[in-house]
Amino acid sequence: MTGRQQRTDDQWSDPTGISLRGLYVISVLAMGIGISVVFAVNFATPTDFVLKQFAELSQKRGIDYFFEVGKRLGGVFFLIALIGSPTLLVMRQLLLPISRCLDMVKKGRVPTPDTAEKARRRLINLPFIFIAMNIGLWLVIPALVFLVAHVADLMNLRTSAVFAARASMVGLITSSVAFFRVEAFSRRELIPFFFPKGRVADLKGAARISISRRIRMFFRMATVVPMTILLVTLITLQWELDALNMPVEEYGLRVIIFTIVLFGILFASTGVLNRLVSRSIVDPLNRMLEALKKVRDGDYQTRVRVVGNDEIGILGDAGNQMIRGLADRQKIRTAFGKYVTPEIRDEILSGRIPLEGERCEATVMFADLRGFTPFVENNPPEAVMSGLRTYFTAMHRAIRLRRGLVLQFVGDEIEAVFGIPIHFEGHSDAAVRAAIDMRKALKELNAEREASGKPTFAHGIGIHSGPVLAGNSGSEEQSAYALIGSTVNVASRIEGLTREIGCDILISQETVERLKGSFWLHKETARFVKGYSQPIIVYRLQEEEQPEGDSDERETGDV
């Protein structure tokens, strides 16, 4: 997929405050500082030409001295202006695709995909084009200037060649500094606007410089070029040693002065270059770390600001893709938690629920609304769904309060389990207490419905404990967490017995035998249920206040 195809639907942000003036300033300053450094280095060198210039200045007195110094400095500024003017014109041409795109956005027009892609490509390639232009100028212009100086008989050919060579090497350093300054300005001011979604590395036809090349580039500019300048200067001084007519002490002092000047200039320039190179690597990494800290704290809306197409930019795009994946996962997790309980959700997503199932002890509960079919037939669908949702919500809260897990809502029936997939002791007690809470919740719900003139609800709850097979069931395309085994079937049959006996909560003898708490229970006559050859014994869960003298009651304590 090309860069054009990827970004035809980009939304352009507000361009207010975005300006290209900084790039022009960088261009002029780079040239001006470079020329000033060349001037300082050359005039700090004790060559025959320089010594003659100082000798002429020493003969001036008063106002003539300052006039002569001003004339030479004026020549430097004139040279800066002379070279800077065409540099600005070239920079204007380089920035033309970018400025056109910006002007269209500022006028409220949407740039065409072709215009936008040209602007983006020129923006990424700008530092490379700029450094190539600067190096070319530093190779050509010093050679022409010092050739003219030789033709005008201001200096000999050897001195003009050395001065031109040193100027070109100074130009390499200033061009490198300008490269990283242009890149830093673009990353700070322009790239976030033109690449709001990152993916700078996806742009076709864009130049790229790797992290290792940045480091090698800095090493060469900071070590090889200064050593070369010093070596060429010392060789030049050795050549001119016989022509110089001065004491050894003065000559040595001038060489020391030149070395100090050269050291100061190169120390400052390489320090700036070192800072720019390190910031071009460290700043994107710091922004990435800040984004990851926000993601760690749960902010999945944050994004890494990608401003380059090097390894860090590619890593930033990968980080954004990862964050989007985490955000999607969180959405799925949240949505999933609305269909299953959070415990089951976490167990499924973590892979701790075996696909083949696991056998364990649990307490199963079934709750079913009574008279629901007439309720559906006599009420509009909206009222049915609203009433059912209200009932399910109240029951679900009561079950969750006792660490129970609702496995499914089927029609007007609730299937819940206690003790899996997160095992805990006392799951039988928890199920019975949940049933008591559900009884209370239904009374409160019915009071509200009766006050509103709505029909009240009644339900039956069956509870049974025993071994179950729990795991992911269903098809290969769609699975569900389910319980299988006779314990589940018995719990469902016990819930059905609540209609026959005429009570709301029935508990199996197996559950009663596991209870550690105290409850008011009434033992019912053993009954046969569908699908079982042996009768089952169940207990009715009584209300909190019991009648006196009932010999069939089993008092196990207060609720």
Distance between the termini: 69 Å
Q: What share of residues are in beta strands?
A: 5-15%
Order of helices and strands: HHHHHHHHHHHEHHEEHEEHEHEEE
| Whole-angstrom Rg | 43 Å
Mean pLDDT: 80
User: What is the approximate shape?
Assistant: rod-shaped
Tally of structural domains: 2
Give the number of helices: 16
The total of beta strands comes to 9
Q: Which ranges are low-confidence, i.e. pLDDT below 50, for 5 or more consecutive residues?
A: 1-9, 545-555
Instruction: Characterize the largest beta sheet: strand count, sense, and whether it forms a barrel.
Output: 9 strands, mixed
Give the proportion of residues in helices: 55-70%
**SSE-based structural type:** alpha+beta
Describe the fold and architecture.
The protein has 559 residues and is α+β, with helices and mostly antiparallel strands. It has two domains: 14-286, no CATH class; 341-555, 2-Layer Sandwich (Alpha-Beta Plaits), CATH 3.30.70.1230. Helix content is 62%, strand content 11%. It has helices at 3-6, 21-43, 48-58, 63-94, 96-106, 113-151, 157-194, 211-239, 248-296, 311-339, 342-350, 372-377, 381-401, 427-451, 486-501, 509-514; strands spanning 358-369, 405-410, 413-418, 459-474, 479-484, 505-508, 520-523, 538-541, 553-555. A hairpin with a 2-residue loop joins β2 and β3 (413-418).
